[in-house]
Amino acid sequence: MHKILVIDDDASICETLSIYLSEEGYDVITAGTGAEGINAFKLHKVDLVLLDIRLPDINGFTVLRNLKIIDKNAKVIMISAFHDMTSLLNAMAAGALKCIGKPVSITELENAIESVLH
User: Fold this and answer.
1) CA–CA separation, 40 and 67 (whole Å)
2) Can you tell me the distance from the alpha carbon of 93 to that of 107, in angstroms, rounded to the nearest whole number?
3) Residue 1: how many CB atoms within 10 A of its CB?
4) What domains appear along the chain, each with residue ranges and CATH number?
């Protein structure tokens, strides 16, 4: 079973993704801040991180850089409410494998997870 860490300050998104991904057979951990996410990443061996770009304490790009320092092979999909090319390019330059928009489309999420994990 793959373990997925969801880092997003929107509790309803964390809950919705947790329920959906659990029903799909994934083990899910959630964090509401960048610091909590980094700590959870250190504590748990996760196969994939779904990371919001805008967090209340640390921006997602800083979190991504920290995750890559901890594990250079960390698999990260960035989630952004802002569909701009700059955010996408910054996410990919920082090491994200995919970037998906909010509201999260289940089809887009499934395709991104599938391509990153398999």
Assistant:
1) 10
2) 25
3) 7
4) 3-117 (3.40.50.2300)
